[in-house]
UniProtKB/TrEMBL annotation:
It comes from the Eukaryota. This is Uncharacterized protein. InterPro entries: GGT-like_enzyme, GGT_ssub_C, Ntn_hydrolases_N. SUPFAM superfamilies: N-terminal nucleophile aminohydrolases (Ntn hydrolases).
Length: 107
């Protein structure tokens, strides 16, 4: 899912976070229109601040806060990352809290 990857990639880069923090961050999703008027509801995950939600509404967006099992529309992910920290190669992994599972690098 491109939108999931883009949101997680952006979280890893700006600012750089550890892998699990990137997966844990709340997400947004612009829904596919379900009516002929082209309504694009912006779904925001619980954890997005009320200020952000209200800001989206002030800009003219229709928003819906998704909680609990509704959050499944955001998908799930695992990340395995190789990077250098102070010249040392580091393997790190993270698993999405929206589902069950785990990620770990095999060395």
């Amino acid at each position: 899912m491109l939108w999931l990857r883009a949101s997680v990639d952006t979280t890893l880069l700006f600012p750089p976070l550890i892998t699990n923090a990137a997966l844990d961050s709340p997400r947004i999703y612009i829904a596919t229109p379900i009516s002929e008027d082209g309504d694009h509801t912006v779904c925001v995950e619980e954890g997005i601040s009320q200020d952000v939600n209200e800001g989206l509404q002030r800009l003219g967006h229709k928003t819906k806060v998704l909680i609990g099992w509704e959050r499944s529309m955001f998908g799930r992910g695992q990340i395995i990352r190789l990077h250098y920290d102070e010249g040392q190669l580091v393997h790190s992994a993270g698993s999405d809290p929206r589902g069950d599972g785990m990620a770990f690098p095999l060395l």
